[in-house]
Prior knowledge:
- The protein starts with 18 loop residues before the first strand and ends in a 20-residue tail after the last helix.
- By secondary structure, it is of the alpha/beta class.
- Helix 3 packs across helix 5 and helix 6 packs across helix 7 (235-241).
- The strands form three sheets. Strands 2-1-6-5-7 form a five-stranded parallel beta sheet, sandwiched between helices.
- Strand 8 and strand 9 (204-205) form a beta hairpin.
- It has helices at 38-45, 82-92, 110-117, 135-139, 156-167, 215-233, 235-241; strands at residues 19-25, 49-55, 68-69, 79-80, 98-107, 121-126, 142-146, 200-201, 204-205.
- Helix content is 27%, strand content 16%.
- The protein folds into two domains: 9-167, Alpha/beta knot (3-Layer(aba) Sandwich), CATH 3.40.1280; 181-261, Trp Operon Repressor, Chain A, CATH 1.10.1270.
- The chain is elongated.
Amino acid sequence: MARSSSIPSSWRKTAAMTFRATVLTLYPEMFPGPLGASLAGRALEEGIWSLDTTNIRDFATDKHRSVDDTPAGGGAGMVLRPDILAAALDSVADGRPMLALTPRGKPLTQARVRELAAGEGVILLSGRFEGFDERIFETRDLEPVSVGDYVLSGGELGAMVILDACVRLLPGVMGAASSGEEESFEQGLLEYPHYTRPVQWEGRTIPEVLRSGDHAKIAAWRHERAVEDTRLRRPDLIERHGGASQAPPSGARRDSEEKTK
């Protein structure tokens, strides 16, 4: 069956294409959504990456276009059928990694995002209802992935999260080649806090070291704060990466709600 897509053809240029994304979903109209704006949207228009959607319902075999059924053993909700999912996956499988968005999956990491961004692209299967028939994972090279310890109404938003994380790492997307190298998680640490003008605001002042012009002291301060904040907020990262406290401080731009020392 032909794949369907809600993405304008002008946004699927083939010249110099480096990353191809395909999303299997029951709601193709949700795309590109936020991926059509800002960095990802500009890169989509420039042909740095492409986005296609495939409607899972197109592979239904009955007149009602059913894609789910009641859970074996009883219980609430409906389960996506493996035969329908397999047909949809087989129609787009071409060697790219295939990931299924599910809260039962392995947590997504920045390291995995970098691996995906370095490849030719990705195929994302968005779950709905109670989830997937487990046999789809036993019969297809499908990687279950979770974007967090919470439950969404469907995998589409998770797919957007993965794509945004990948696209921003593609060559030519971010302004500076080093922009993505010093962010949270890249070195096993959260980022250090950021400040900007005005110097004084509501009784709080930008730390003096950041106004000193001494790059070595600034780097040391940022590293100390990165380690401190990671130990306080995400001790699991310290445990997971072991020597994370020895990593260089991060230097990316992001908003932060921090108090000065």
